[in-house]
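Q: Got a minute? One more chain.
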Amino acid sequence: MHTRVHRVGMTDAARVVLRRLIEQHGPVLFHQSGGCCDGSSPMCFPSREFHVGAADVLLGHLAWHTEFWMSGDQYKLWKHTHLTVDVVEGRGGGFSLEAPEGVRFIIRSRLLTEVELSTLAALPPPRTGADELT
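A: Always. Here it is, folded:
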């Protein structure tokens, strides 16, 4: 029996905020750019208003079919890492949808285990933004 391995997950507290955002804005997605400042935080946008780049990598789906994308360059550095979306009090400096709520999404990370890495290595590579264009 194979265990399902995920590259990204979410805390219960983050799920509560995500649900509220979906109720207000419709379907949303997360994007992690890896840039400086707030670029290192996961940003949440309405799905219809954010277009992923060709090099962006789909890490997986969170609650309510919410996609989590990461820039290709950042993925190269973090491909051995499991990410957990969490939420903390305080406002980030970006345009992420949760900013007016007085909270901000953050990433907690851990290295994937050898078993998780070997399981992922046996799977097809993750989808990219280029796949979305075809």
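A: The mean pLDDT is 91.
Q: Perfect, thanks.
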